[in-house]
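The record is kept unedited without comment:

——
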Amino acid sequence: MNEPDNDPVWAFGPAGVSFGAGAGFLNMGESLDPTDWPGFRAQGHRMLDDLLDHLQGLREQPVWRPIPDRVRALRRTPLPASPQPLADVHESFLSEVLPYAGGNLHPGFMGWVQGAGTPVGMLADMLAAGLNANCGGRDHMPIEVEQEVAGWVRQMFGFPETSVGLLVTGASMANFIGVLAARQRVLGTGVRARGIAAGGDKLTAYVSLGAHNCVPRAMEMAGLGRDALRMIPVDDDHRIDLSALRARLVADLAAGLKPFLIVGNAGTVDTGAIDDLGGLADIAAAEGCWLHIDGAYGALGVLTPAVAPRLAGIERADSIAFDFHKWGQVPYDAGYILARDGALLREVFATDVQYLRREPRGLAAGDWWPCDYGPDLSRGFRALKVWFTLKVLGADAIGASIARSCELGQALARMVTASPALELLAPVQLNIVCFRYRCDAPDLINTEIVADLQEAGRVAPSLTRIGGQVAIRAALFNHRTDQSDVEALVRSCVALGDAAVRAGAA
């Protein structure tokens, strides 16, 4: 190995770059760094303090504010050509952006399946941005950090050392990669050159009616088409009906089709249902199908004894998709794909081009390049915020937060059941509660209730449909949410519903 010379080879100056003693001075033009580092440092500290103040004072703020027309109009501007003071741009952020964000930081946010992040994760993301690492490959420490995170994920799910994991944007991308891996196994390496024409069989895949829309989209993007995805009915608990699945498999085989993929749900988006994953694993093994689990949020239930037993069978999956940015409370974005057969996943993406050639030494060395296992060559250092979150907070604390969210879900279910004005519309299996206000025009009034709640800013649930009926959906994913928030939700729903009924009667 060649050691660097002790003499300085380059020295950076404020006005340019000087290459070596006596090499002369080459004016390379001004950099984009600050000219006043002390002033920039002071402004940076103010920006950090403002964000920490914002997080500390969340309960004193509305969950969400509608964007005023005047503020929205401020964002219709021409391309900035000249520089503006950092302090002025920061002030615009504080007055025009921060107050009108989506609200998922707030303890009253119950609208969608979104994590709240943590101050630890925020600081880690700041460090990652400062490092500006491209984690597509090559031999540098951020790749090793992602490898360490991959080892932790294998441990979480009981996967073998031969498995491979990769941080991606979110579960939508992770589910897409899972479909591609299943396609690769059934069609072989020829699929990359010839597409699905590489196989003569018509492929079919299977998932429940409760699946997230990203699963049919993945089938579309993989060139298989959503018509090849069989949407299997669910039982009374909104889990995939295994008898109906078996019957559809028999029918498709008899029709000369080739089943290749079964997708199980570990926490459906509408109700939080967890499929019988062990039963799905048995069926997949018997039929020679790839078993992929969409565990966008529910898969991380393995971190708590309150949920882990219900995920039995997930360790038998061929691939798992999930998000650290949901129940894991890592800042957006931090999705994950875990594949049991790491060599097969490499076959899906790896390519032999000279600019990505591996060398035995130097920066182009390294035995694991993430670009071989996913679609992105340019990748940010997502692993650092996951690494910080798990190291600083600990997996046990994340698991305890997950358990608390499920306890809050059960508490909310009890409040709804106890109220004559409200009714549950689906079993509460994890931390998603679907209910409605009882009245003669339930779809209209419950829709109005949710809009009124969001605009009032104390709590913000969302809407869905259960059995064709409009439901108020409370997704309790924020680690800051407590009993007072769910009590406020119930109290406000009843009050708004009663007021709407009285207004209609008048």
In short: The chain has three domains: 65-101, 126-393, 396-505.
